[in-house]
Design goal:
The chain is an alpha/beta fold and 211 residues long. The protein has helices at 11-21, 27-45, 83-93, 140-151, 166-175, 203-208; strands at residues 5-7, 51-57, 62-68, 75-80, 98-106, 113-119, 128-132, 135-136, 156-160, 163-164, 181-183, 185-186, 189-190, 196-197. It has one domain (5-208): Rossmann fold (3-Layer(aba) Sandwich). Uracil binds at residues 82, 135, 137, 194-196, 199, 202-204. Its cofactor is Mg(2+). Uracil binds at residues 196, 201-203. 5-phospho-alpha-D-ribose 1-diphosphate binds at residues 81, 106, 133-141, 202. Pathway: Pyrimidine metabolism; UMP biosynthesis via salvage pathway; UMP from uracil: step 1/1.
């Protein structure tokens, strides 16, 4: 059975996503919106983090208080380059998270995702991983990234994006039925160039002003 696809459709996220989609939104605004949405998405994706209870003292009384249980902080793996936009938001909320990067490019002839960079914490086997990329379009890079991350055997893997196409979700679930997907919206379809429709254009270009 396929892992769950969760659409995080909080009104604040939907509003900010609409602003991001608009052609006239500037690079600076786009970047800031992606960071803000990254923060809001992280809030939801980390809902099931385990807690432990510690004895503390408030100025008024002692209490048994909840704290995050994980000894090993989670790892956020950004699929370069657009993943950086979501990553920045998540790190605002979880500053102690560890960070990994994976760089992939699409071979122009074969259209296969080719790895050019991979760096993750050496003790990733004892950590939970959240892989981030704003756009789940064909699913090729997400699938290749998860293939690679599975080689280093983290404790668990989740995938977080901003926008997903139905084609990308089907492809991802076929290859990685055990990895849950979190997204802010599922759009209509892909065009013949692999762009999400209606989408928001090229997320990396809009993030860095390279269009
Ligand atoms: N990557 C993007 O940045 N945008 C799309 O629409 C599809 C893939």
């Amino acid at each position: 059975m396929n892992a769950k696809v969760t659409v995080i459709d909080h009104p604040l996220i939907q509003h900010k996503l609409t602003l991001m989609r608009q052609t006239e939104t500037s690079t600076a605004k786009f970047r800031n919106l992606l960071k803000e949405i990254g923060m809001l998405l992280a809030y939801e994706v980390t809902r099931d983090l385990p807690l432990k209870y510690e004895q503390i003292k408030t100025p008024v009384a002692p209490m048994l208080a909840p704290m995050l249980a994980a000894d090993k902080k989670m790892v956020i793996v950004s699929i370069m380059r657009a993943g950086q936009g979501i990553l920045d938001g998540i790190l605002e909320l979880i500053p102690s998270a560890r960070v990994g990067h994976i760089g992939l490019y699409r071979d122009p002839l074969t259209h296969v995702a080719v790895e050019y960079y991979f760096k993750v914490p050496s003790d990733i086997e004892q950590r939970d991983v959240l892989v981030v990329d704003p756009m789940l379009a064909t699913g090729n890079s997400a699938v290749a990234a998860i293939d690679r991350i599975k080689e280093v055997s983290p404790m668990s893997i989740k995938f977080l994006c901003l926008l997903a196409a139905p084609e990308g979700i089907s492809h991802f679930q076929l290859e990685h039925p055990d990895v849950p997907i979190y997204t802010a919206a599922i759009d209509e379809k892909l065009d013949e160039h692999g762009y999400i429709i209606p989408g928001l254009g090229d997320a990396g270009d809009r993030l860095y002003g390279t269009q």
